[in-house]
Design goal:
single chain, 48% helix
Length: 109
């Protein structure tokens, strides 16, 4: 039986929709920001671990994820990173707040 040749259809028209788009540059490979590179063992009291687990369940996250977020937040807001002028301003604002509450209590509000 002789081999059949496929019939070629008419040449398709090429769309020029993408001609004006410039090619994208090759992406630079960077590790994802949540790449975990180190396991850290942490000892904590049972009561604290129970609190962590309870809060994590309430937020729908893992205890590890919660601890990472809390550590990062603590480091970001650490008083070790605050300048003396910023600390003085925060203490002054706190003192004004306390004075305002005391005045309201004295006035019977």
């Amino acid at each position: 039986m002789p081999a059949m040749k496929a019939k070629r259809g008419p040449e398709a028209e090429q769309l020029s929709v993408f001609e004006e788009l410039a090619p994208l540059p090759e992406p630079i490979h960077e590790p994802a920001p949540d790449t975990m590179r180190q396991i850290v063992s942490l000892r904590m009291p049972d009561a604290l671990l129970e609190r962590v687990e309870e809060v994590a369940r309430g937020r729908g996250v893992s205890p590890s994820s919660l601890m990472r977020a809390l550590i990062a937040a603590g480091l970001d807001r650490s008083y070790a990173a605050v300048t003396p002028d910023e600390l003085a301003a925060e203490l002054a604002a706190l003192r004004r707040g306390i004075d305002e509450i005391a005045s309201r209590l004295r006035a019977g509000e």
